[in-house]
């Protein structure tokens, strides 16, 4: 099917229609590693772990997005209390480190205008 669905709770179709919106932040795991933000990763297997289908399908989908990083603040450990990047920074870059808590890279922005969906990948 190449049409967007009409289900108002479908996050994928909602993002494609109107882009990302922090008001819908839920924290799938019950918490945000870097607080309430819009999370992305260059590692597709990391992103895949957050995909789910509401209806049975042999396919999954994820978005490839354009993100404005600006001056990124690098972290290697959780910082769940963040509500934005520290003063002077525009985003948070979670970087894996042998001594840190991160297994995969993460990029978090805290402004809806810093991210736009660019491509839909169906696999």
UniProtKB/TrEMBL annotation:
Name of the protein: Poly [ADP-ribose] polymerase
Keyword line: Glycosyltransferase, NAD, Transferase
Lineage, opening ranks: Eukaryota, Fungi, Dikarya, Basidiomycota, Agaricomycotina
GO MF annotations in UniProt: NAD+ poly-ADP-ribosyltransferase activity; NAD+-protein mono-ADP-ribosyltransferase activity
Keyword Signal (UniProt): no
Gene3D superfamilies: 3.90.228.10, 6.20.320.10
A Pfam cross-reference name: PARP
Record-annotated PARP catalytic domain positions: 1-123
Family annotation (InterPro entries): ARTD-AVP (IPR051712), Poly(ADP-ribose)pol_cat_dom (IPR012317)
Organism: Serendipita indica (strain DSM 11827) (Root endophyte fungus)
